[in-house]
Amino acid sequence: xxxxxxxxxxxxxxxxxxxxxxxxxxxxxxxxxxxxxxxxxxxxxxxxxxxxxxxxxxxxxxxxxxxxxxxxxxxxxxxxxxxxxxxxxxxxxxxxxxxxxxxxxxxxxxxxxxxxxxxxxxxxxxxxxxxxxxxxxxxxxxxxxxxxxxxxxxxxxxxxxxxxxxxxxxxxxxxxxxxxxxxxxxxxxxxxxxxxxxxxxxxxxxxxxxxxxxxxxxxxxxxxxxxxxxxxxxxxxxxxxxxxxx
Length: 246
Description:
The chain is an alpha/beta fold. The protein has seven helices and ten strands. Helix 1 packs across helix 2.
């Protein structure tokens, strides 16, 4: 896989990816396995930035946030992403890859402040950069943070890691005839109501012609396959490109 299809990418992880079967908290074995995949990917020479959610710890719109106003709940959720980011940083560095966490909310003892030029310099030096605390603003999801940071660092693609092998035209768990898209345009994804990212993040990617690849991170080696340009997952592409099924 010496020939890379992408030189600089942003990987979007859900907080739930760290929880394992428990569905909450951080599973050490899952964290270690995820860090190993990220370290192997960085070792290919790709410049890798990461945004991770906090849903395994706290979500602003969750049951645990009842009684809070939305802004307060979202800020607590941002702090959860910092916890996940620092934990992931430690796990990746145990694999021998230098990693930096940049937070949109100032907390100098744990992370650098988000500074675009500094983030670019880290990437150029081969360091993994984890963007924590979302955009630093309530009412915006980590999907939106991923799309925003991807454009700011001039990433070539957003890689959205999931537990399924792509985007389907209907729920594959309920419909045996569900078909997986190999490639789908932004417009067709909107028309078909495909749940790729939240609407703000999706619009940002569409308006800036930033491709998205949805793939299964639980399958070992998949992230390397995607970065090498192999057909893994579903690509969401510009409206002038054809939609096709796998």
